[in-house]
Structure prediction request, 406 residues.
Amino acid sequence: MSTRMFDINSMVSEGAKLLGVGAEEGSDWEIPTNHSDPIDLVVGMPSPSHMPFASMSRLISESIESGDPAVMEYEYGRGNPVLRGILKDEQYGFTDFPSNEDQFILFNGSSGCMESFCATFVDHGDVVIVEGPSFPGTVETILKYRGEIKEVSIDSEGASIDRIQSIVLESEKRGKRVKGLYVIPDFHNPVGVTMSLERRREIATFCLTKDILIVEDSTYSGLYFTSPPPPSLYSINHGLGVLRMGTFSKTIATGLRLGWMQGEESAIDAMRKTRADMGNAPFIQSAVAEFIRSGEFENHVRQMRLLYGDQCSALSDSLEEYCGDYLEFERSGGGFFLWPRALEGDSMPLTRAAAEEGLIFPDGSLFYQDTSMHNNNVRMAFSGNSAEKLAEVGPRLRAAFERVLD
Prediction:
């Protein structure tokens, strides 16, 4: 047998290299700890103890037991018409602007939405503006398709309109086309901020005049604690020049892998023609549609809003009581995350010291392409732990600060 080695790294694509394929270093997300009782604040997912197991098990079984072959076959088009009919109906709360079901298409989670957006609209070298910081999974998808990413900072009202305008001007001078703007306007991941109505209007109007396609990520829009967010950019622009994507991953369960994109019919039809994934599981689409129509989804989300609000308060109270002289942060009005900033020292050593105290959370630099924008933040996801457990975070983090700074 030949002993010749096959160098797979010499064959990977340029997009894969941009994502780190072939690199030897380990992941900065994986912070080891030997603590006997660790508190994991890394991943923002629905509370494991509150997932609607019984309801979804029953509804999925009913869908399969119906004997309809369609629920077990490929789904080539836009997705289950009943579920799309629900999504377009304003009474269910998934849209705030009149639509028809052909303005929706179902994908494998929000990641499938971004894959389709990039495959349909992003050419090699096209500029795509994202917030800095932003959700890394989205940014990585743009990189894989060889888009040129430009980051804009976030303030208390959301993405900087001044920086967006500046990037567009700079790009035009370089002869580059700004193809898209990706924003998370509601309960931002990782920052937690909600974009103001004025900022939404400014961004929506500017992008429409410049023919820049807005990708509006509404992943957390329904997970408000007390007050819903302002109108969507989609509704502000009457559906023109905006693709609004949503997912059931955060309201029900990540394993459903069920998301959707809303847009003009011409845009949705273009995305339908470029998809190559044969759709997602029809029996899951059917079960989710029945979960919503029965009223169980509304009751479930209402309970989750209360739960996540209590969890956010527990973590915020603990941090303020024990670490108020070491960090600063803004309480979020919804979603899964806090974005504390260390007032002294470097946040990366803090994550290592925190791991020794049994606290696992990522350094904020992981949410930027341009790490010079990083300002000693860390991200803490509160959705996966009880309020009682989250109350322990402050004392442990204070011990970590003392370990680093003293």
